[in-house]
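TA notes, week 10

Several of you asked for a full example with nothing omitted. So below is the full record: structure tokens for the whole chain, then the designed sequence directly under it. When grading your own attempts, check the secondary structure regions first.
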């Protein structure tokens, strides 16, 4: 199914100049970049993005990390986009990520793991509406 998902090149990926290569990896995986921006989020926004993890011991560290410097947010569209992005990204813990994935190549640790991808179509809709409120609901329903 053609779907949309939200991906982020997190602060560590931007700081290390990997934005261009990561966008290239998504495009080469057959995905279309349909929205793209650089933004530095504040802590309240970061808390909302990771609200499902609010009871985890690493929540505060995660919020501090994702809000520490600008990141690149994008909407990617394509066949099976949610899983395709997560495949390109690799496992959450870079030490467990498959060779050739973004996290294998550039991830530092469990928190600063370079990229984010929505984990379901439902969560993608919520995240896209948070990160790209300028898009109308009708756009998301396509
Ligand atoms: P993913 O980003 O692969 O979907 P997740 O949704 O479980 O993983 O967690 C969101 C982010 O939280 C993850 O990218 C990095 C951080 N994180 C997850 N598990 C962690 C842990 N055990 N220690 C520190 N940070 C962690
Ligand atoms: Mg997740």
């Amino acid at each position: 199914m053609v779907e949309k998902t939200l991906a982020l090149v997190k602060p560590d990926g931007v700081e290390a100049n990997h934005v261009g290569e990561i966008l290239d990896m998504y495009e080469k995986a057959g995905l279309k970049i349909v929205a793209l921006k650089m933004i530095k989020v504040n802590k309240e926004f970061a808390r909302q993005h990771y609200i499902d993890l609010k009871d985890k011991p690493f929540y505060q560290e995660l919020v501090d990390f994702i809000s520490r410097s600008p990141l690149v947010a994008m909407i990617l569209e394509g066949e099976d986009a949610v899983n395709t992005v997560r495949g390109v990204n690799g496992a959450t813990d870079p030490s467990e990520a498959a060779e050739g994935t973004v996290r294998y190549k550039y991830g530092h640790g469990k928190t600063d793991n370079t990229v984010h991808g929505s984990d379901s179509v439902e969560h993608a809709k919520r995240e896209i509406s948070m990160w790209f409120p300028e898009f109308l609901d009708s756009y998301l329903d396509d």
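The mean pLDDT is 95. Use that as a sanity check on your answer.
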